Please model this.
Amino acid sequence: MSEGTLYQWEAFFNDWFLLITAVFLGFELVRYVVIKKFSWALAGDAVTNFVTQAMYLVLSFFIYGAFYIAAFFYFYQFALFDIQISWATVLIAIVLADLVYYWEHRFMHRVGIAWATHTVHHSSPHFNISVAYRFGPMDAFWPVFFHVPLVLLGFNPFVVFFAEIFVQFYQILLHTEAIGKLPKPIEKVFNTPSHHRVHHGSNKEYHDKNYGGIFIIWDRLFGTFEEEKAKVNYGITQPVNSINPLTVFFHGFTRLWTQLKTARGIKSKLMLLLNPPGWSPNMVSPREISR
Amino acid sequence: MKLFNGIVVTGVLMLGLAFLASRIPVLAASETEGAEDQEAIPQIQEGLRVEIKGVRNNKGVIVIAVFDQAPPFEQYKYEESIGYQEVAAEKGSVLVTFPRLIDGPYAVSLFHDENQDSDFNMDGSYPTEGYGTSNAKDSMHEPTFDEAASSSSHISIKMHYF
Model:
């Protein structure tokens, strides 16, 4: 197992996943027609999703990419352990990448400035595989801070990058209503379409739940798990109501900016950036809020 | 679970699993190519023995070059090697000896020149002939000199075919 092999696997994922996604989306659209849920707004929303992905990739490549590479290779000098690359260590890296992803994801939901970018992903009123590609302008920025610890522990930067991408690709498959609950043992351990539907729900009981990437065990362990019971309503508390890709892509920041302008005093403005979405200067305590 | 407790549990898990990961090559040491178990035995002055495994047929020759310097090794400058041979290919294993190479460490690079055109043939960026390097971890690995170099008098190399 060498860095070269990891690079080959990454290229493989990149090539095949888009194809698998396209085929599955086709199937989902047919299903929408059959169950009489199809609308042109839905189709437009799907296209918008891919446009936001394109914008996200351009930003990631030209801005965040260099930051990522520099950070990883800089901190690798201070590695705590000497970890060789093998199938076993890559697997462990994936498990740890999933663990840090749980916290990264929870951070993106509970800190205002991070929610401004992650809200884009949650803003679609629909739920199908194209939503998996719906991304915001700073989605590639925050993960660095959560993954540098893995490099500091001693995992090779290529391995950490591969593990991170693996955790992302797995989740693409979760964005669908077409797959019901899987056998109990799987639902117990792994993140599934059912668990992820809950995560995307705007139903009150589904707010800020099921943050996991590959494994749902972290949510169970840290108390953020919720079972899918009531039918899920998708989207955010205040809908975007647009399929304009630019409107969608920037709506989190547009809203945050409006709030910042109206808030009085430095402390209120700072709190808007740090506190969970839904907080406003009139409130007493941020603990009370969930999205 | 309280947030703080969750973070503590996470920290413990991360340290624990990373430590476990760092112990793994210790358990799997026997899998690496170019096993250096020969070092404990006093060196008999018979030079360097290279065993090439996984040769796929009897066609052509195996071109093998031994290096004691990093730059020519990493640039595949076979003409600047300190040991060079072309031996008839035999399906399975081939043993090549360099009686005068008694020091080390040495890095070995070789390829299976099936059509005997004295060239390592590729189709675009994919090799069409077999290739091998000392201490290569898998078929995609291109070791640096430091990774490939071995002080052992017996080096085992796997011939990879794309």
Residues 40-75 of chain A form the longest helix (36 residues). The mean pLDDT of chain A is 92.
